[in-house]
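Final report, Chapter 2: Outcomes

The project's central promise was a pipeline that accepts a single protein chain and returns its three-dimensional structure in a standardized token representation, suitable for archiving and comparison. That pipeline is now operational. To close this chapter, we reproduce one record exactly as it appears in the project archive, with the input sequence first and the structure output second.
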Amino acid sequence: MSTQKKPSVKTLVILSLLTALYIVLERFLSINAWNMRIGFAFCALACAGILFGPVAGALVGALGDIIGMLLVPTGPYFPGFTLTAALTGLVYGLFLHGKQSVLRTVLAILVNQIALSLFLQTLWISITYGSPYRALIPVRITQVLVMIPLQFIVVFLFVRQLLPAARRMIES
């Protein structure tokens, strides 16, 4: 018999809503250029990771990317983008689930923005569109420099202000 706890219906509904929120924020409310996207889709991934852990964050990222691509394609489907979305949610969960601090928030954002967005996502863009990787880096650095402080402010405020209320709602 498995000792792993099954998620409640409430948890599944909240994760479904976070997936839908991710799709809306990523596909409709982002500023997009072909190799750069500035938006708030990270909020849904951070919420899933912080509230439910790394696996939930990864699932919201992966499912949100796949469903979003099926509903509102913005280019050819490439599984690398799905992997990056999943890893982003995973990182938020690993760093911030049950143990938030300024340092952990900064580390989660730096890993996501530098390792995943700047290097990995740029690699996927290079492969998908046939653009030279090194030529994409300067433009992608601009995105990272915008997103690091934006994500810190939003995630840190969420952790400090909204997280206690969200946890009470989930537990009730």
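Archive annotation: The longest helix spans residues 133-171.
This record, like all others produced under the grant, will remain available to the consortium after the project formally closes.
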